[in-house]
Amino acid sequence: MPFSIDFLDDGRVLEWEATTDGAVATERDDYTPRFYVAARDSDADLDLTTLQSVYDQHPDVVATDTVARRPGFRRDEESVLAVDITHIDRVTPLARQARQLSEYPVGDLACFNVDFSREFRYCLETGADPTPASELSTRRLSVPVTETSNDVYEELSVAGDTVTGSPTDILTAVQGALDAHDPDVLVCSTSEIVPTLYEMATDAGVDDFSLSRWPDVDYQQLASRSTYSSYGRVGHSPARYNVPGRAIIDESNTFFYGETNLDGVLDLVSRSNKPVQELAWASIGNVLTAIQICEAHDRGVLVPWNSWRHEFYKPMGTLHDADRGGFIFAPEVGFHENVHELDFSSLYPNIICTRNVSPDVIRCSCHSDRDDVPGLGYSICDDQGYLVDVLQPIIDARDEIKAAIRREKERDDPDEDWLAELEGRSGALKWILVACFGYQGFSNAKFGRIECHEAINAFAREILLTAKQRLEAGGWRVVHGIVDSIWVTPDPDVDDEDRENLETLATEITGRVEIRLEHEAQYDWVAFVPQRESDAGALTKYFGKVAGDDDFKIRGIEARQRSTPPFIKDVQRDCLERLGATRSPDTVLDCLQDAIKRLHAGTVPVEQLVERNRVSKPLEGYTQNTQNVAALKRARAQDLAIHPGQDIEYVVVDDKKSSRERVALAHEEIESYDASYYETQLVRAVESVLAPLGWDRTEIQREIAETRETDLAAFTEIERG
After folding, report:
1. Nearest alpha-carbon partner for 446 in 325, 300, 287, 324
2. Which residue among 29, 257, 534, 644 is buried most deeply as judged by most CB within 10 Å?
3. Which secondary-structure segment (H or E) carries 35?
4. What is the 3 state secondary structure string of 299-361?
5. Distant-in-sequence, close-in-space partners of 158: CB < 8 Å, separation ≥ 6
6. What is the rounded distance in angstroms from the CA atom of residue 16 to the CA atom of residue 247?
7. pLDDT at 310
8. What pLDDT, on the 0 to 100 scale, is given for residue 715?
9. Is 578 helix (H, G, I), strand (E, B) or coil?
10. Which SS3 state, helix, strand or coil, does residue 81 take?
11. Residues in the chain where the model's pLDDT stays below 50
12. What confidence tens digit (pLDDT) does each residue in 202-212 have?
């Protein structure tokens, strides 16, 4: 069970297995990666012998063969050309050559199993299980933001212990920690630590420094840094590095490790066949695709290099009906007492599994006369789709983990370490289940199909509408509903004795729709927030007091937004507590006034006013002098590299300026801040709290002004006296 796989330049492969006595390496020199070439369409009659002869003469090709494989889930086995290669880095260049042969019409050939990540390919083709057999040891290396652009570090932390001094001092500390603990995983605040330490060692003449467990190779660069855009959101992918014998987790480039923990990562390692290092930097879609590829591999189905699925023909009316999202009941703006939230458990994944929605069976030709998808007229084959086999084990596993979490929390002395492991695993599986629906409509998904996306939405609309109608018939009034959640309160026009029990209703609805409807929470009250500059309810902005609990559930407002400074979040939460306790806007305004006084008195710690925003473009790409631009100018002046897709943190010190003096970066010595700017932010946050009661920003500001005038008049009177 190798937890890490290294590929050497000479073609050898190193399998690293974690044992109780340390990592053990096994050398292999017989691994030959493989890709396939076949006709793009099943009805094409292509002779692949010419292509095979070309590959047979290529020096990087070990062997070719004609084998039987399925070039798609909807295709039977066909004769395809298998090409075995000397080195994993030659897969893509050699596959590209198949497209360039003039003997074949453009577009008639298709390549398969091409763009796999390195370690994942190895595990898939050799059957190696990357799940560690023993617990992995870890060590963390981090540098402060001020050091990230330096060629020589003057400060570095090893497992939380800060080291300063000369390059030799820092290198000695790092090497000493590696020699003492011999970690399997290096968790780095930035991957650039790896090449920078080696460059420092070279410049300082430290010949025996090495992060590697393999004597002949220090480190390898796997990918350069890049900026990308996905669904209108700019992201940044840092350069990726490999250290033989150790898995590198870059904290600036990891989703699952950041959102869960190492246990969550390892759970997905066992399901996706992606080793720790690749799993850590992979996106949700990347991991979901890997799990699907494993299922395809087990079924003898090849994986297309590029997605070329054509959307099935649809009449205009079907296009109109299909192009819709989930069902939404607009929230009733305002305060609602005694509210219950009901959620369908993993609604979209369960729709896929209970309705057999899968790309290989949707709109099948064998049942084209059936209308299985409500309102769309799509048929679904009786044969079980592959996507069900992918998702059902994940759904079942998460249900079991959640049950274990509940049992552990009910104990008098719960095991916190065990709980942390369970929470990490549950969180990792949650993200896969969240993404499985949207990925069906993703244009670059290997096995997605837009008809699946449309069918899932159609089933979801019917299910939520069924739940609404039955709950209302049972004496409950729906105050909000969106996608998989529904909020109800007792209907005042129905007598208590005539109202049906909510748990009983949920059980009945569960049986009717075949997906569990769970009572998520009861609230003493819930407030639905209106949209900015509108009386209509914002679909995802609400807050409520959980019954029998001191906590609030908050969604969409400032206290949940990543960019909001901690001080603003804390004040907003204080306002919620006061509103919940008194239902009085006056107490909220008192809280606001107190916070404003602290701001203007200069007693708020500057670290509580740090804003964090994502940079969407290079500095030269901005045309307006925003706060982000000022922060980027300031970062450039300090030789700090902030790339599009990365976050930048700053405090606003003078918002009237347009130069870089408008802000100060979070790591700087900050002596003052713009109290008026943060007052405006406070008012905005308090507006979210009071808007359900009919207050807007203008009224709040007028009330503040009147209070100030009263305070000033009282102060003047005292002075006169």
Report:
1. 287
2. 257
3. strand 34-39
4. CCECCECCCCCCCCCCCHHHHHHHCCCCCEECCCCEEEEEEEEEEECCHHHHHHHHCCCCCCC
5. 139, 140, 141, 173, 174, 177
6. 10
7. 65
8. 46
9. helix
10. strand
11. 715
12. 999 999 999 99
